[in-house]
Design goal:
Oligomer: single chain
Shape: globular
Number of helices: 10
Order of helices and strands: EEEEHEHEHEHEHEEEHEHEHEHEEHEE
CATH topology of the largest domain: Peroxisomal Thiolase, Chain A, domain 1
CATH class of the largest domain: Alpha Beta
Largest sheet: 14 strands, mixed
Strand content: 15-25%
Radius of gyration: 18 Å
Number of strands: 18
Length: 346
C-alpha cells in the first residue's frame, strides 16, 4: 500500500520514498592512528597523530573528532555554520556527551539522537526527512566513537588488560560528518532516495563481546523489509552495506536472510570488515562503533558512488542497544538497524 502526501511516499510498513531532492552535498572523516593504518587510510580527510587528539581525556578526544569533522565538511561544502539549520548528532557515551561538548561551539540547533552504532543511519534519515519536508535547506549529520572511551563506557578500563574473544570487534576511533541540502551545491556526492526505519529486534543474546551476532537479526529485518516495501530484489542494489556486523555477524545475516528467501551474498559488504586489515591488524571480528559506518561511508562508499561504480546502494548501519547498567543486570542485547538508500546524484 502506497500513501502519497505532498510528494512524499510512505511505503509498506517501515519505509519512506524521498521524492523531493535531498543531496549529500559534502562529507568529512576524521580517524585515529589504527584506522589510518588500515586499508582505507589514504581516503580519510584527517588522521590523528595520536588518539588523544591533543586532549586530556578520551571523552574530550571524541568530542574533538566531531568538532573537526563538522568543520571540515562545512569547508568542503563552501558553507558557514550560520547556513546550517539543524545538527543531527549522537554518540555512544552516556547522555551523548561527545556530541554536546564537541558541538556546543557551533551554536546550531541540536537534535540529539541515539541509535547506538546505527546512529549514522538514524541521523541521515532524520536529516533527509527534515530537508525533504522543507523544514531546512541545509542540515549537518554527525556521529562518532572512540576505542578507549567505548571500552571505558561498556566493558573494561584499558589498564585492566582483559583478553578479548575472537568474536569481539574493535571500536573505531573516528567521526563522520555529512552536509545534506535541497540543492546539489558544487557537486553532490550522492542523493538520498529512500529510508527504512528499523525495529528493535531481540533474539535473547547476552554476549557483549559478540556484537555482530546481537545485531544481525535487526539488520536482517530492516534489509528484508526494505526489499519488500520498495518491491526490489537484492540485485537491484549494487551493494547492500551493513555498519559493523564483522565476520561473525556477516555469516549470521546471510543465513537469516537466506531463510527468508533473500540471497544477498553477492551484494553484501560490511564496514567493520572493510576498515581494518584482518591479517595485519589485530581486531578479531572487525570494526564497530558509531564511527565505523560513518567514516567508511564518507571516505569509501560515497567515493564509489561519485565515480559511477555503484549506482544504487542500501546503507544499513547497525546498533546494539545495551548499556553498562542493562548488561550488569543480566539483560539481553537488543539490536536495531536503519536503512538509507543512496543513489548517484545525476
Amino acid at each position: 500500500m502506497v500513501q502519497e502526501t505532498d510528494g512524499k511516499y510512505a511505503l509498506g510498513k517501515q519505509s519512506v520514498e524521498i521524492k523531493n531532492p535531498v543531496y549529500i552535498m559534502e562529507s568529512a572523516s576524521v580517524v585515529g592512528t589504527k584506522e589510518g593504518q588500515g586499508p582505507l587510510g589514504s581516503l580519510f580527510d584527517m588522521v590523528g597523530q595520536d588518539d588523544m587528539f591533543g586532549c586530556d581525556s578520551w571523552e574530550e578526544a571524541e568530542s574533538s573528532l566531531q568538532k573537526d569533522a563538522v568543520y571540515l565538511a562545512l569547508g568542503k561544502a563552501g558553507l558557514k555554520k550560520e547556513d546550517i539549520r539543524y545538527l543531527f548528532a549522537g554518540d555512544l557515551l552516556g547522555q551523548s556527551i561527545a556530541s554536546s561538548f564537541g558541538l556546543a561551539g557551533y551554536e546550531i540547533p541540536l537534535i540529539g539522537l541515539y541509535g547506538a552504532c546505527s546512529t549514522c543511519g538514524l541521523s541521515l534519515s532524520m536529516g533527509a526527512m527534515a530537508v525533504n519536508a522543507g523544514y531546512a535547506s541545509h542540515v549537518a549529520c554527525v556521529t562518532s566513537s572512540h576505542f578507549a572511551s567505548a571500552e571505558k563506557e561498556f566493558r573494561f578500563p584499558l589498564g585492566y588488560g582483559n583478553q578479548r574473544p575472537l568474536s569481539a570487534s574493535w571500536t573505531v576511533t573516528g567521526s563522520g560528518a555529512f552536509i545534506l541540502g535541497d540543492t546539489p551545491g558544487k557537486k553532490a556526492r550522492a542523493r538520498i532516495t529512500g529510508i527504512t526505519t528499523g525495529k528493535i529486534m531481540d533474539f535473547g543474546l547476552k554476549d557483549s563481546m559478540n556484537m555482530g551476532a546481537c545485531m544481525a537479526p535487526a539488520a536482517c529485518d530492516t534489509i528484508y523489509q526494505n526489499l519488500k516495501d520498495f518491491g526490489r530484489q537484492p540485485s537491484d542494489y549494487d551493494k547492500i552495506i551493513t555498519g559493523d556486523l564483522g565476520t561473525v555477524g556477516q555469516h549470521a545475516l546471510i543465513d537469516l536472510l537466506d531463510e527468508r528467501g533473500a540471497d544477498i551474498s553477492g551484494q553484501h559488504m560490511d564496514c567493520g570488515i572493510e576498515i581494518y586489515d584482518a591479517k595485519a591488524q589485530d581486531t578479531h571480528a572487525g570494526g564497530s562503533g558509531c564511527g565505523c559506518s560513518a567514516v567508511t561511508l564518507s571516505a569509501y562508499i560515497l567515493k564509489k558512488i561519485e565515480e559511477g561504480e555503484w549506482k544504487r546502494v542500501l546503507f544499513v548501519p547497525t546498533g546494539a542497544l545495551l548499556s553498562k547498567t542493562s548488561f550488569n543486570e543480566g539483560q539481553t542485547v537488543p539490536g536495531i538497524a536503519h536503512g538509507v538508500v543512496l543513489e548517484s546524484p545525476e
